[in-house]
Structures are given as C-alpha cells and as structure tokens.
Amino acid sequence: MSDDFSGVFEAPVDATPELDELVTATMTWHFSPSTGSPYWVGRAAGFGFDPLTDVRTYQDLRLFDDVAVDWSTIPAHTLIPRGCLGRPGRFGIYESGGTTGAPKRIVDATSRRRNIEYQSMFLDEQGFPTGDHRAGWLHIGPTGPHIMAKNIGNLTELRGFFCYFVDLDPRWVKRCIASGRPEESQRYIDHILDQVKDVLLSQDIRAISTTPRVLESIVARPDVYGPLREKVRGIIWGGTSMDPETLRLLETEAFPEATLAGAYGNTMMGMAPQRTRREGDLSPCVFRPFYPYTVVDVVDPDDLTTPVPVDTRGVVKITSLTREFFMPPTVERDAVTRRASADGAPEVSDVRTRETTKDQIIEGVY
Q: How confident is the model at residue 1 (pLDDT cuts 50, 70, 90)?
C-alpha cells in the first residue's frame, strides 16, 4: 500500500477493496496530524481511545458509538483533511434538505464523482440511454446548496448529455406543509411543472432525473406528461421510496418506452443505485450502495447495534469511508429491508420513513 493509500481510496469503481483495509486507511488518513482534518484530529484527544491504534477493523468502529457529532454546526472547512490540500479536485460544501432538523453539511472534492461513475456502470447494464451532440437531460430537483446538482452534472457529463436544470427548493415545500398550507405547496409544484413544460417543448430532452413525488405530479398534468412521454427514453427517480405497484404502473403504463432506474441516497450517504434485476429478487428495486466506501447496515430499531437478518426490515445505519470525508456509523431516518447479495456487500430495498419518527418528518416533494 502506498503512503497516501491511493490503491484503496481510488481503486477502480468496479473493484471492491477489502473493508478492514479501507477502515485502517481511513483512520490513518483522517486522524494523523499531517493528513487529517482539523475537526477529527482535534476531537480525537477526548475520545478515550486512539483511532490510529485501536480501530483496525470495521467492527472496531463501534468505539465511535459514544462520539456525538452534530453535522449541522461543525465549521465545514474544518472537515477537509490537510492531506487533500493540493490534490486534484476542488472542495465544495454541501447541505442536506433539513428533513430532520437543521441542514447537515459535508465536504467533497472527487469522492462523489467516483460514486456517480459507479452508478453509471449500472445504468449501462440496464440499457439506460447515452447522449450525443444535441441530446438533453433535464434534472427536476434541488441544485445548490445540495450535492445533487454536482452529482447530476457529473452523471450527464459521463453519459454524454447537455444538462438542463429546473431548481426545486424542498425546504420551502416542507415548510408549507408543516404550517398547514398544502394549497401553497401545490402552487409551487405547478410552478415547477410549468418550467418543466417550457424546457420539454423547446429542447431535445431524452432523459430526466427527479423525485417520485414530482414524477407522479407530471403524470397528473397532461400538458407536461404528453411531451415527456413522447421524448424521454431514460428516467432516474430517487430521493425516497416508491411502492412496487406505483413503480409497475410507471414502467408499464405511464412510460413504457423509457428505461426507469431508481437511486436511493442522501447528502450523508451518497448514491446507492438500483442494481440490475435478477431472477428471484423479492423486490422490483434493490439498491446497492457504493461499498465499501459507503457501508449501509440495517439494524434492529430497538437495538441500534444489532444487524437484522436478511429479508428483514430495520433501520439504516451509514458509515462513510473516503479520503475526503469520514462519517462513523450513524443512524439515519430511513427504514429498509436488508437483502442478500452475491458478494456479501450490503443491499437494501423498500425504503420508507421510520414509523417512530414519521410524525416529525415531512418528505414533501421527495
């Protein structure tokens, strides 16, 4: 292994580095004073354990269970590892949608592009279209300060499309719903769809990416649905859940000429693309995180340290292990079904909001 761990952190996206080796590299990189971030190097002194010597395997990350991290208040620039300064890629700061409270913040330069290269690999398997010198891709969803705009920009570049954006502010829709103004949120969605219609009628759009809620709203607007069905041959839906019957209707009735591909993700975990369907799958859409750089454990809601059996529902617990960003195992808002995989890497399906927190969470346009 080289001194900067390039063989682990930048392995080909179709390869799977050994998880414990990646954990060791992550601890060495993020907690060494010469390469680590000011935030993690500074906090390590108060842990009661030494990440450089005590955390050598994935199981050792349990030592972080008592380390509280408020991602909404950390000065984001302090998360950038010193060893990344001067390396390729410009760091940006990106925020979550604030679904469970104040927006969380992460930093990223090149790691999420690798995640998108991984997603594009699955899209190739599934026959998702590529572009040419004039084909357009329309993203209907959040742009800044969210990382989705960067992700879509990378994905459309990889697949040869011009990228068009219709910006969507999920925080405003959530505020309207939370304050008992559903009619205002509907007016906002109509405003979004009016912009979508303008792009569809004036540009050569062949692929789109959006949320399940927006996609369902498009189907309900004939003046938007008609040109989209006629032109578009690739649709990525993502953000939150879609029940199997709705997915079946979209694939077979609403958009029979298009390839639909799901993507489960958020600011903290990155993107888990829908893997290619296999005979015997118990769900029509199984998501595969960018393992081992993102590890998604599915744990018992009554004991957040115990994994649930395969084909059992549980709570999502996410770990991020990249050169640019380290997040110890962190319980997220979602409940999923854990699925088996051919190589032991985690796969999940049937994403839903956790029942214990549903009253506090407003998904809005997601």
A: very low
